Amino acid sequence: MNKNWLEWTVFGVSAALILAMASWLVYDWRTPKTDRPLLRIELGEPISDGDVHSVPVTMRNEGDVTAESVTVLVTLTARGGKEEQAELQVPFIPRRSVRNGWVHFHSDPTAAVSLAPRVSGYEVP
Amino acid sequence: MPESAPRSVGESVKEYGRGIVGGLLFSLPLLYTMEVWWSGFMAGPLKLLAGLAICYMLLLGYNRFAGMRRDAELREIATESVEELGIGISLSALILFILGRIGPGMAAEEVLGKILVESFVVAIGVSVGTAQLGETSERDEESDEQRRERNTLLGRMVLSICGAVLIAANVAPTEEILMLGVEMSSLQLLGLLGLSLFLTWMVLHGSGFRGGSDRGNGMSLGKEVASAGAAYVAAVAVSVGMLWFFGRLDGVAPIVGLDQTVVLALPASLGSSVGRLLVHE
After folding, report:
1. Nearest chain A residue to B3, by CA
2. What pairs with residue A68 in β-bridges?
3. Could you tell me if B272 and B235 are in contact, meaning their C-beta atoms sit under 8 angstroms apart?
4. Which element (helix H / strand E) includes B274?
5. Tens digit of pLDDT for each residue in B204-219?
6. Given an 8 Å threshold on Cβ–Cβ distance, is A10 in contact with B86?
7. Is the dihedral of CA A96, B93, B130, B267 positive or negative?
8. Contact, A15 vs B82, CB < 8 A?
9. Greatest CA separation found in chain B?
């Protein structure tokens, strides 16, 4: 075959790339899968700026199905039982992926009795 | 054909340059479309594997029937197709990274899925760019006999399919195809089908395109209609394949699938008929 060193290099790198991707796809195909998204929500350290209290939200999909139109609700229960709810919507959380966001409260989360996140719903593709 | 000396490195660099420009020219709209990023992580590994295999076969076919060195032996066509697929994968990874669509912290499934889905069309664009954007003097000289050999049903179908993929891929993953399909009346869809067939015939036989056969050259109208029909069939096949790949046929009634196919077959048939002319060049 009639190739110079540059063409052989491009060919070698390309062949390695394609083989690696194909092997990974075969491995991924043979690995057992969950049949739905498995969403885990974690809250980070609140940050206060005057009257606005922001809480970072990490949404992790540990399943093998993408979750679409995910709605996350975070409920803050203040001392005295007063509840405040914040909502966060994410268009997609791909399988085995993480998305980050923030929710805001008027009440101070650091003085709250509890701060509980939950996924209220999502679509599957 | 006698074995000629290898190209100089400078010539190869120019050829890769043309390939890269061609790849971007045909696929930038796709790289800028969010439905394509999404389909990257929605498509399962089996679908991506099928896409990879189909893309490689199309590259083989394109390089065999319309590539720079059409008369090269199969081994050379096979290695060239590997190079083009590799360039397609690298190029889509680079552009997606610059656009911030992939990056550290993302799951491997998401990153690789996005790169792969985009790279299929980029690779075909690379192949077309390498072959079509160069100077004609760089192409191999060929005899009428070789040209006739290439102008077979298989050759025409492969080029039709490649042309249809390049043009239809830009709209196939979008919501608009579904929206048009379900909102258009049956009469409008029939009109669109008629228009697609007419345009296909016009490109191939009615308007003096380079490589087309014009009226009055002895070809009967029946044969012209049959050849336009064949190009349209390739367009329909590509449309169905693309709608399946992008998950547009999942969970919809067969009639909705058909409606979407008719909508997508218009751009696909333009690509399919123009792509086929390359074989006559």
Report:
1. A2
2. A92, A123
3. yes
4. helix B254-277
5. 887 777 666 655 556 7
6. yes
7. positive
8. yes
9. 64
**b/e per residue, B232-266, with b = 16+ CB within 10 A?**
bebbbbbbbbbbebbbbbeebeeeebebbbbbbbb
Q: What is residue B164's three-state secondary structure?
A: helix
B21, two tokens: 């420009």
Closest residue in B to A2 (Cα) is B6
| Complex confidence, ipTM | 0.83
How many angstroms separate the CA atoms of B131 and B21, rounded?
A: 12
pTM over 0.90: no
Q: Which pLDDT score, from 0 to 100, does residue A79 have? A: 87
In order, the DSSP letters of B72-139 are S-HHHHHHHHHHHHHHHHHHHHHHHHHTTSS-TTS-HHHHHHHHHHHHHHHHHHHHHHHHHSS-GGGS
CA Rg value for chain B: 19
Confidence of residue B1 (pLDDT cuts 50, 70, 90): very low
Q: Residue B138: which pLDDT band, with cuts at 50, 70 and 90?
A: very low
Question: Which residues in chain B touch residue A123, judged by CB atoms under 8 angstroms apart?
Answer: none
Is A97's CB within 8 Å of B83's CB?
Answer: no
Taking CB atoms and an 8 Å limit, are B83 and A1 in contact across chains? no
